[in-house]
């Protein structure tokens, strides 16, 4: 199969011009969220040139946005066959496997993406998520931790690791992860809510109240502020009840 350079070299100028015209037009429609319109135009470009990698990629993104994940996976697959070092196509193909409910199929896509660009934390995080969705929690935790060590400012790694630890009932470890996140990124004050939740689960009520207050103070407009206020009020009531009973 000819590569992009070879097919461009041997394609007639009118055909090349038509492909480029269709591809640019379809890209603009996709960027305007007019995905159905863009699909037909990408297909026109591919009809003229079966080796047009960019049109396959754009078409795959449209299918993804339209919720047609099987078509998207197949289309991204064609793109990576034409361009084996196409990081974005492997990444999007992995995301579509997840959305289609085939997380174990996503694992290979993200591994291929990581081989192409090992410095990009996005595919590494998604690899961890895929293992988590496959109920391979230990592998997911290891990947999140490795990502924290190699990219300490990547907050999503801390988020997903702490969330999984909380799901597993390992609240002390989750709390430590979130405290480290605050140390690394002091302005990431939404982590206070997770710390408060962990402390409450561990029975450390006064510490939990302190962190709920911190969260409300720094994030009064967030949706979770109502939850934090509710939990804080309940903890206050329990403390007052215990104080009253101790006096009786």
Structure description:
- The chain is mostly helical.
- It has a domain at 1-69.
- 79% of the residues lie in helices and 0% in strands.
- The protein contains 14 helices and no strands.
- It has helices at residues 4-10, 13-31, 35-48, 53-65, 69-82, 87-99, 103-116, 121-133, 137-150, 155-167, 171-184, 191-201, 205-218, 224-247.
- The termini are far apart.
How many β-strands, per DSSP? 0
What is the molecular shape? elongated
Distance between the termini: 87 Å
Low-confidence stretches: 243-248
Helix content: over 70%
Please give a handful of descriptors for the protein shown.
mainly alpha; 248 residues; elongated; disordered C terminus; 0% strand
Topology:
Elements: H1 4-10, H2 13-31, H3 35-48, H4 53-65, H5 69-82, H6 87-99, H7 103-116, H8 121-133, H9 137-150, H10 155-167, H11 171-184, H12 191-201, H13 205-218, H14 224-247
Helix pairs in contact: 2-3, 2-4, 3-4, 4-5, 4-6, 5-6, 6-7, 6-8, 7-8, 8-9, 9-10, 10-11, 11-12, 12-13, 13-14
